[in-house]
Amino acid sequence: MDDSLNVLVVGATGRTGSQIVDKLYNAGHTVHALVRDRAKAQQQQLLAPNIHLVEYNLQDYSGYDTIVKDVDVLIYAAGSTSFGNFWFGKNKPKHIDYQSVRQMALAAENHKVKQFILISSMGVTHPFFFLNLYGRLLTWKLRGENALRSTQLNYVIIRPGKLVDEGFSIESCALYQDDSIRNQDISREEVAEIVRQCVANPELLRVTFEVVREKDPTSETLSSKFACLIPDENRNRYSQTKVSI
Questions:
Q1: Which CATH superfamily is domain 6-234 in?
Q2: What is the enclosing helix (H) or strand (E) of 33?
């Protein structure tokens, strides 16, 4: 990919999405932030003034083709995070974590978007994990993942551990591909940096990985950890793979 790309961030005003926007903007990319309410986003000052705000309601799938036109990289960081929306309202997991992902992926495929990065969640293959009590959140996230996998897009699916607001040690981030649940943290800034480096590593194609922060940093770069990842089509879902030492 070129050094400077047109990047669309869906869920740009979320706690993780806003940090993704900052990382990519500071890396020199042209960042378009999809927001539900432009005036509210400007008032809250969550994003840099030079970020291009795209006001759109994710529930309206009819306009997705227009939104993704001329986009090089699409990052889907939206999620149904409000407990009240797990059962009521339009922002239920079925809508945000599955249907919107599916429709956005189809539009991206139609417009030949170069890379689609999806922020999912650790535990999606474990239907009895406690997070699935909230409107079958993980079930819908897994369906969203599978909808993306069913396309021909070059995708990266990131499954963070427990998201926290504090800490940054990218050297301590461990990447796994074993679908296990780990009671370990990862900061939103660390996830944002991983996304930035995924964009900088376009050879990372059609992979899924879990990521957490471990106690001891390693000398490995994130790029070298990426190089050890196995594409989804070449790995056994339950094979034990740890990328960092």
A1: NAD(P)-binding Rossmann-like Domain (3.40.50.720)
A2: strand 30-35
